[in-house]
Amino acid sequence: MTRFVSLKFFMLLCCVCMITNVMAQQKQITAFPVRGFCIAAPRPAGVDAFVKFVKEELASRQVNVLILRVDYNYQFEQHPELRDSIALSKADVKKLVRVCQENRIRIIPQINLLGHQSWAGTTHNLLRAYPQFDETPHVKMPAKYVWPNADGLYCKSYCPLHPDVHGVVFSLVDEICDVFETNAFHAGMDEVFYLGDDKCPRCGGRDKAELFAGEVRTIRDHLKQKNRELWIWGDRLLDGKTTGLGMWEASFNNTHRAIDMIPKDVMICDWHYERPDKTAVYFAMKGFRVVTCPWRNPPVGVAQVADMTTFRKDATPETRENYQGIVQTVWSDAESFLTGFYSKKKDSKSAEESSTPWNCFRAIYDK
Hints:
It contains twelve helices and ten strands. The protein is of the alpha/beta class. It has one domain: Glycosidases (TIM Barrel).
């Protein structure tokens, strides 16, 4: 009898161990390697408040990646002519670096490269200081911006084949990566409408997919020299016409073919804000690591979390780790986001229904 009880106990113990092992494996499969947050870097006056937010809100939700859109909001030493008039000092940046290190958050700075060199009627710092880099100098900035317009102007781009452009932008990239003590850099590269313009003396008439892929490779290869990783937005690698995704979330100028021309170690940030489109599967099956990026729609963000969980759970062993997780995006300045996040004013709708980035952030990290 004792032997029988011992055998039953042993078998039960084996079953418990097997179940525990399966649960541990399942948790490992569905847990996200990247639990991210992307926002504009704070201005100097807002650094301390942002540090508090990182410590109390990001860390408590186990956010482990912080993408900071810096652009020209830093007191660059190599190219001071490209600084914003009010910009972060090295001491300000070190406060951000320190709080991230203390809370095991990987910090990744972003400077928009290639596209987004202007916005509405404003030319940004690079093309203002170096107008010779402009891909479309014949397109003049309007006094009053409207869309659509006769020039098809959304945002200006720099010419990727200008012989001097990379000497300037890579100086910025190196300096910002050094001060942020980071092993990764986000180059933006979304919504590039101006590329291979017919009037450009260097790249007019060239294949736009090859031009886009060439710029991705050039940036990636430069970062690789210091063992740094390239992150980009993924929209230019999707076919907007065939998929019906449109010209914003995907490409209408044939850059989508670049997906087969760029290195597989580039991290793709796949953004969709109004529908939980399943394009992460496309990137993963092409061999890329990918994160899905919601913005301000809580139900869509929650659906994207659920999708990413399913992708990781159901994927083949060969592609599972390509599904890296979620990055909540915020497309305002940090101060505006913090005002909304900490506001005591009640929204007219519930947090699940109200379309704000802070409600989406709360919703997805509750999941």
